[in-house]
């Protein structure tokens, strides 16, 4: 592989005009596709194999005109202090609003608060339910504007009016912190390279890669039902890995220049060595993201595949566009250790300063001398950080987790105030009595049985379909949708449904947003272990090929588990317990998003392997070339610690930039990934890994001879390049060889 990538790097260096033209053309094509594509809203939930999804399908079959997947809105009214919604003037205002809402072309039905028993007991709060014929993604902007206009008119009449539900489909905002994250990345690159031009290359190529990836997602969003969160997460991950991959190749290029290579040969060697690490690191990220499909939740699968596509683009750009840009830059990109004149370069170093070991060398030497102390300190520290993960509660964000500045959150609070917290998460029961001789008796029995369960406030009368064989019953809990108590109630209803089926041969199913969220959480829990086995197993095999060792990949996997558990503990402490919640902009604590653990496992594993591959390949390279196991650890840190540190800081800055998002899911993922990178890069890879390698010595690189013969030689250390003449600058036959390859 190193030889092939070496030729690719030199070819891209020489044919830089052609390479640059290809990537600019792809960016333009993707941009045009995104600009001409119809706008897509939030992706819809589908959870095959769950009771909530089965009930949803039954509703579509037995209630064909119900628009079960249609968008909903709740227009909540509150009377001024000392007045009631039953006052004649306020009643007239609400009835006028209901009439205006009913005129909408996409409106299926509107419930009048005064005829639908939707006025609170104290008479201060009322709500009108609006049901649309189309989903929130398909709802026209004119319908949303009509909804807002009707609410504004009622507000002008003296009422407090807020709108809840999914009809508004508010697009999440990332805020200025995302820009700050990119600015921090730029500063770190300048400090690392000592050159504005060299620092700008990783940023430029990462932005181009993310631009192509996100524009492609936007262009296909409506066709493939991709929500706005998909592109946000793809940009988050693509930007981070794009900068890092380019950073490693540019850094290796400057190192090759410092050894006296010609610029074209240095570009080829940088791509052949660091580029090999980029390929395998990118492959582990892609495996982890695509592996999310094992959960069998279409939304999560699409998010993973979209992000994986963006990572693949980042790898290709790093391997081709970076050497092309290095060709354009020429002598303006200086060898390692030299700074540009603008940043203080040109001044000769003293002999004492030039001979002084760098920080990476000093740290690695310390760890090699004190491996047990460093290992214990790192493991105990991560273990302490992981303790909160033992009280992890899973759920999905609802309007109650939105900022108080949004009308959805204020509507949520008003409904809780007037009707109780459970009113925001009603449970819909679907009773299929098609096999019963007396369906109406079954409906009545089910209603009476559910009323007797603990935690139930209200059970509405059964609403049968035209055939009279299926009915819906709405259950209002006494707890908020995301609480453990509500989850226990759903399980209690389903247990009761099992008993009813045995007695009456009728199915009792529970669905609705709250039940779907509970089913998703359960499905995530069930899929976590198989997902870990699949992803870690495949990556473990891949790392055996890369490092030609058994213990090094095993150590990498165990270190990853430590860092991801510690990161989950930090997420629980902030978003569930409320520690530092004000600093993070978390206005409402609650359960951790149900997809967070499995998503964090996938992404963090891929990113953790980045640092493992980049850092340990330099150690492996030194060991293969004759250094002792302990000295190889120090050599790896001398060459790689500065760059890995810069890469980790950049990735943390990019992820932390998404903490400013108004979307709670994006905020949580941004924080979780940022803290996970911190734990993995600075505690696991910088402390635990060298300590373990120092303790293992040469045994770390042991591989059974039969397995060594069976494994393909991918030559990630570039050993094949050592046999070539170092003075060779060009080879006119390389283009034809590359074409044949």
Proportion of residues in helical segments: 55-70%
Characterize the biggest β-sheet.
Answer: 5 strands, antiparallel
- Give the termini distance in whole angstroms: 11 Å
**Form type:** elongated
Mean pLDDT: 82
Return Rg in Å. Answer: 30 Å
How many helices in DSSP terms? 25
Unreliable residue stretches? 346-354, 725-741
Amount of beta strand: 5-15%
Q: Would you report the number of β strands?
A: 11
Supply the helix-strand structural class.
Answer: alpha+beta
Can you describe what's shown?
- This protein has 741 residues and is of the alpha+beta class.
- Helix content is 63%, strand content 7%.
- The chain contains 25 helices and eleven strands.
- It has helices spanning 2-14, 16-36, 51-62, 88-102, 141-156, 177-193, 196-224, 228-258, 263-290, 298-329, 351-355, 359-369, 371-386, 407-419, 439-451, 484-504, 513-547, 551-576, 581-584, 596-624, 629-656, 664-696, 705-710, 719-722, 734-740; strands at 72-78, 107-111, 125-132, 160-165, 394-395, 427-432, 456-459, 463-464, 470-477, 507-511, 592-593.
- Strands 6, 7, 8, 9 and 10 form a five-stranded antiparallel sheet that branches. A four-stranded antiparallel sheet has the order 2-3-1-4, with helices on both faces.
- α17 (513-547) runs antiparallel to α18 (551-576).
- The longest helix has 35 residues, at 513-547.
- The radius of gyration is 30 Å and the shape is elongated.
- Mean pLDDT is 82; it is low at 346-354 and 725-741.
């Amino acid at each position: 592989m190193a030889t092939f990538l070496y030729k690719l790097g030199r070819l891209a260096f020489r044919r830089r005009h052609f390479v640059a033209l290809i990537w600019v053309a792809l960016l333009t094509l993707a941009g045009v596709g995104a600009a001409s594509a119809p706008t897509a809203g939030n992706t819809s939930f589908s959870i095959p194999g769950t009771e909530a999804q089965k009930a949803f399908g039954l509703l579509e079959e037995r209630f064909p005109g119900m628009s079960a997947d249609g968008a909903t809105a709740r227009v909540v009214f509150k009377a001024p202090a000392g007045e009631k919604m039953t006052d004649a003037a306020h009643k007239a205002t609400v009835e006028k609003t209901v009439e205006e809402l009913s005129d909408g072309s996409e409106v299926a039905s509107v419930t009048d608060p005064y005829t639908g028993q939707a006025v609170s007991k104290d008479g201060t709060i009322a709500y009108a339910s609006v049901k649309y014929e189309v989903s929130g993604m398909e709802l026209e902007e004119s319908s949303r504007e009509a909804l807002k206009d009707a609410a504004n008119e009622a507000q002008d009449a003296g009422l407090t009016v807020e709108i809840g539900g999914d009809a508004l489909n508010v697009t999440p905002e990332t805020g200025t912190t995302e820009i700050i994250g990119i600015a921090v990345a730029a500063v770190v690159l300048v400090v690392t390279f000592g050159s504005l031009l060299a620092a700008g290359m990783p940023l430029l190529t990462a932005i181009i890669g993310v631009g192509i990836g996100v524009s492609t997602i936007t262009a296909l969003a409506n066709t493939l039902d991709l929500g706005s969160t998909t592109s946000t997460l793809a940009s988050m991950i693509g930007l981070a890995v794009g900068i890092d991959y380019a950073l490693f190749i540019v850094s290796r290029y400057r190192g090759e220049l410092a050894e006296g290579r010609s610029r074209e040969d240095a570009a080829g060697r940088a791509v052949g060595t660091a580029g090999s690490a980029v390929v395998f690191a990118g492959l582990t990220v892609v495996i982890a993201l695509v592996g999310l499909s094992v959960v069998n939740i279409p939304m999560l699968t699409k998010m993973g595949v979209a992000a994986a596509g963006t990572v693949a683009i980042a790898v290709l750009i790093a391997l081709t566009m970076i050497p092309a840009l290095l060709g354009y830059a020429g002598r303006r990109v200086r060898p390692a250790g030299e700074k540009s004149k603008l940043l203080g370069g040109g001044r000769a170093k003293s002999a004492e300063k030039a001979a002084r070991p760098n920080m990476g060398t000093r740290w690695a030497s310390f760890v090699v001398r004190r491996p047990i102390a460093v290992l214990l300190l790192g493991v105990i520290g991560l273990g302490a950080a992981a303790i909160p993960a033992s009280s992890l509660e899973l759920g999905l964000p609802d309007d109650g987790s939105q900022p108080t500045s949004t009308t959805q959150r204020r509507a949520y609070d008003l409904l809780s105030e007037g009707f109780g917290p459970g009113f925001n998460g009603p449970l819909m029961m679907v009773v299929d009595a098609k096999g019963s001789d007396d369906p109406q008796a079954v409906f009545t029995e089910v209603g009476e049985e559910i009323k007797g369960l603990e935690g139930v406030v209200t059970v509405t009368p059964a609403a049968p379909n035209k055939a009279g064989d299926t009915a819906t019953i709405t259950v209002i809990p006494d707890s908020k949708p995301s609480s453990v108590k509500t989850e226990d109630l759903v399980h209690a209803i389903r247990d009761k449904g099992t008993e009813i089926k045995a007695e009456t041969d009728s199915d009792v199913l529970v669905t609705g947003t709250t039940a779907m969220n509970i089913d998703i959480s359960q499905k995530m829990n069930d899929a976590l272990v198989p997902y870990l086995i699949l992803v870690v197993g495949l990556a473990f095999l891949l790392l055996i090929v890369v490092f030609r060792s058994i213990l090094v990949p095993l150590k990498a996997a165990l270190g990853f588990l430590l860092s991801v558990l510690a990161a989950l503990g930090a997420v629980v402490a902030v978003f569930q317990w409320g520690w530092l919640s004000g600093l993070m902009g978390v206005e409402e604590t609650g359960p951790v998003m149900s997809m967070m653990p499995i998503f964090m496992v996938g992404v963090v594993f891929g990113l953790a392997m980045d640092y493992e591959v980049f850092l340990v390949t330099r150690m492996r390279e030194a060991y293969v070339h004759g250094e002792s196991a302990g000295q190889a650890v120090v050599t790896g840190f001398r060459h790689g610690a500065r760059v890995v540190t810069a890469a980790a800081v950049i990735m943390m800055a990019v992820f932390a930039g998404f903490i400013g998002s108004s979307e709670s899911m994006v905020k949580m993922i941004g924080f979780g990934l940022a803290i996970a990178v911190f734990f993995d890069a600075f505690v696991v890879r910088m402390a635990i890994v060298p300590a373990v390698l120092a303790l293992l010595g040469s045994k770390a690189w042991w591989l059974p001879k039969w397995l060594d013969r069976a494994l393909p030689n991918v030559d990630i250390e570039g050993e094949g390049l050592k046999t070539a003449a170092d003075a060779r600058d060009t080879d006119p036959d390389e283009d034809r060889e590359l074409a044949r390859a």
